[in-house]
UniProtKB/TrEMBL annotation:
Domain (DUF1468) ranges: 7-149
Protein name: DUF1468 domain-containing protein
Keyword match Chaperone: no
Bilayer-spanning residue ranges: 7-26, 38-56, 101-118, 125-144
The organism of origin for this protein: Prosthecodimorpha hirschii
Key words of the record: Membrane, Transmembrane, Transmembrane helix
Length: 158
């Protein structure tokens, strides 16, 4: 699928502006120049600037596309459609189940299904899903301190 640079640039710029508006309400850190709004604010500003640049490029460039959106031959491929639906369904499932069941219970089956829909054989998909989950948990929970949901495993949390 190809989306015209004008549309993508506008979308990115609007997301950047939304980030800037959101972080403008973040509290200041007393005695520090750097607060919780610095990183997302910088990212929002860059997203806005580069989005506007992409928008202008799309407006000035000669028309190479027939319309604003062109779909490719993958649209007729059941495997690609299944992979896309599995991704969206997995995100929805994680959002709805992670707090109740926990990261370590929800993510491995999601990763396994995603691997299968991408054409990976099931033994490889199983090992990869388990290793990927363990690595993500270790990196986010242990190294970065991100509070991943424990769900049913709360009494085993450490």
């Amino acid at each position: 699928m190809k989306i015209h640079d004008t549309i993508l640039g506008l979308i990115f710029a609007l997301i950047g502006v939304a980030v800037l508006v959101t972080v403008s309400g973040y509290p200041k850190m007393p005695g520090q120049d750097v607060g919780p709004a610095v990183f997302p604010g910088t990212a929002g500003a860059l997203l806005t600037v580069f989005g506007l640049m992409l928008f202008v490029k799309g407006r000035l460039a000669p028309a190479r596309m027939r319309g604003l959106v062109e779909v490719g031959p993958w649209v007729a491929s059941p495997r690609h459609i299944l992979a896309g639906l599995a991704t969206l369904g997995g995100i929805l499932a994680y959002t709805m189940l992670a707090n109740r069941l926990g990261f370590l219970i929800v993510v491995p089956p999601l990763m396994f299904v995603w691997h299968l829909t991408l054409g990976i054989r099931w033994p490889t998909a199983l090992v990869s899903a388990l290793l990927t989950t363990a690595i993500m948990w270790g990196l986010f929970y242990k190294v970065l301190g991100v509070p991943l949901p424990w769900g049913l495993l709360t009494r085993y949390a450490f």
